[in-house]
Amino acid sequence: MSKMIYLDNAATTQVYPEVVDTMLPYFTEHYGNPSAIYSFAGEAEKAVAKARETIASAIGAKSDEIYFTGGGSESDNWALKATAEAYASKGKHIITTAIEHHAILHTAQWLEKQGFEVTYVGVDENGTVKLDELEAAIRPDTILISVMAANNEIGTIQPLKEIGAIARKHGVLFHTDAVQAFAHIPINVDDMNIDMLSASGHKIGGPKGIGVMYIRKGVKILSFIHGGAQERHRRAGTHNVPGIVGMGKATEIAVRDMEKNNEYETTLRDHLIERVLTEIPYSRLNGEREKRLPNNANFCFRFIEGESMLILLDQAGICASSGSACTSGSLDPSHVLLAIGLPHEIAHGSLRLTLSEKTTLEDIDYTVDTLKAIIERLRGMSPLYEDFVRKNGGK
Ligand SMILES: *Cc1c(COP(=O)(O)O)cnc(C)c1O
Q1: 155 Cβ below 6 A of ligand 1
Q2: Catalytically annotated residue among 41, 225, 326, 389
C-alpha cells in the first residue's frame, strides 16, 4: 500500500513524537516506584505530580481532584459503579442517555441487574440531549446524571453547562464521559458544575491504557480497584509512570494547540462535508451541524452497506470507521444512529471520518474522490438502488 490516510482519530490517535521522547526515560532511567521513600524514586514522583497538575489545569480543577486510571473505560465504570455503591442509601436511580459510549451503557445495564433503576434520556434528531426530558426524569431517589461531553460517533457536543445547572439545582451528582472532548474543546468543571469527569490518553495524542478521573472534592465515592494506598486510597495499583507522563505531555500539547488545531480541522471538516453532500446523491450528515467536534464528520449513504464501503476504502489506503470501533464486527446498526431516529436500513450505511491536525486538504479530496467512486460502484451492484432509481425516474 503506497498511501495511507488515517481518518479514524476518534478511535485512537498517533502518539506525538514529543510525548514518546518525554516518556522514554521513565522506562529505563527513572524507573523507581513513585510510592517509594528513597530519593531515587523522587524523579518519578515529581513527574507524576507534574502530569497531575497539567491535567487538572486543563479543566479548571485542583490537582488533588485528579486520579489516574487504566483508561477511559475504567473511569466510566468507576464513576457509575462507585457512585451507585456510595449513594445507594440515598437512592437507586441513575439518569444517562441513549447515545453514551458502551463503557457507560453496558455499566448502566449491569447496575440495572444489581437492582438500580436507569433512565435513558432521549436525544433530538441531531443527537443533542433533550434537557426538558432530562430534568423531568429527576426523582427524589436520583443519585447521578451521566451525560457524555461529545459523542464519539456523530460528534455532537452536549450542553454541559445547562446539564450541570440542572443537576446542581436538584442536588444530583453530574458525571461526564469527556473522552472525546478533553483537550479537544474547552471544559471547565466549575463553570459546568461537573462533579466527575472521565478522560483517556490515547484520544489526545497520548498512550493507550492510561486515563483520568476527575472527582470533585466532597464527592464520597471510593475505589473499586482495591489494593495499595495509591491515589489517596482511591485507586490501587503501582502508578503507570510512563503512561501518566505521556498523558500529561499530550494534554500540554493538545491544550496549547487547541485553538489553532480546531480552526484548521473545522475548515477541512466543512470542506469534506460540503463536497460529500453536494457530490454524492442520497447522502446525509449525522449529528449537530454547528455544535460538533471540529474533527468529526459522520454520514449515511442510502443503499450502501457500511462494511463493504469500509473494506473498499481500506483497499484505497483510507482508514475509516462505521461509527464505533466497538460496533464494527457486529452487524447491529449503531445505537446512536437509531437514537437520532434513523431507520435500520439507513443506519447501516454510515461512515465516520475523524481528522487530526496532520490531515491535509489533499487527503480529504482524495478521500472524497475515492468515496464517490466506491459508492457509485456499490450502488451499481444494488438491485434496491436500481429499483429506486427506476421508480423515481433518476434523481
Ligand atoms: C474511547 C472512548 C472511551 C473508552 O476509552 P478507553 O481509554 O479506550 O477505554 C469511552 N468513552 C468515549 C466517548 C470514547 O470515545
Answers
A1: no
A2: 326
- Which residues touch 260 (CB under 8 Å, ≥6 apart)? 357
**152 CB less than 6 Å from ligand 1?**
yes
For residue 227, pLDDT over 80 is answered with yes
State the pLDDT confidence band at 2, using cuts at 50, 70 and 90: low
Q: Answer yes or no: is the C-beta of 177 below 6 A from any ligand 1 atom.
A: yes
For residue 202, the ligand 1 atom closest to its alpha carbon is: 7
Q: Going by C-beta distance under 8 Å and a sequence separation of 6 or more, which residues neighbour residue 68?
A: 48, 52, 210, 211, 212, 231, 235, 239, 240, 243, 244, 247
Q: Which of 12-16, 213-217, 254-258, 302-306 has the lowest mean pLDDT?
A: 302-306
Q: Is 319 a catalytic residue?
A: no
Alpha carbon of 72 to ligand 1 centroid (Å): 5
Q: Is 71 in the pocket of ligand 1 (CB under 6 A)?
A: yes
* CA 24 to ligand 1 centroid distance, Å: 25
Q: Among 108, 51, 100, which Cα is nearest to 83's?
A: 108
Instruction: Answer yes or no: is the C-beta of 179 below 6 A from any ligand 1 atom.
Output: yes
Taking only the tens place, the pLDDT of each residue in 134-192 is: 999 999 999 999 999 999 999 999 999 999 999 999 999 999 999 999 999 999 999 99
Report residue 385 as a C-alpha cell: 438502488
